[in-house]
Amino acid sequence: MRTPQRLRKTLFAIGMVCALMAAPCTRAADADADGVVLAIENAAVDDVSIALTDAIAEEGITAPSESHFGDMLARTAPELGHRADLYAEARIYTFCSAVVAAKLATESAHNIAHCPLSIAVYSLPADKGSVYLGYRRSVDSAGGRAADALLARIAARTAAQFQHAVSPATR
Fold first, then answer.
1. How do residues 125-141 score in pLDDT, each as one tens digit?
2. What is the reported pTM?
3. H or E element, residue 132
4. Are 125 and 88 in contact (CB under 8 A)?
5. H or E element that contains 117
């Protein structure tokens, strides 16, 4: 593949991921409006990731797909001109609940854009020892509230695996 085509494809892929993640990550003043972020103190990304996949399984949901978001950003930094160390580590876990998906789709076929659900697990270079769980809120409907409740249960169950202080994060 020629370099310009590779660059276009890379930029497109990054754009799609950023579009999905941008809403909750860009507004520090009202992070609670679009997204939820929990901080888990004195934890490691690997340990929180394992706790997250366990919490998802406890809901009867198939194992999530894992995206190495931080690695992708670090790898593409030279081409795109951003810092390579935006995250110390960052992963996004995507999964689907058939019950929630059916509720969302029954409400509107256009709700397909809200599936799969995702939860990010990440740490920041300047914040050693803290691991964050972040997810987007869904649409304002019964199906969206079911998705939000599921995400909240999974995040709470994940955080409960750690006896450290868990708090809403400020961005």
1. 998 889 999 999 999 99
2. 0.77
3. strand 130-136
4. yes
5. strand 117-123
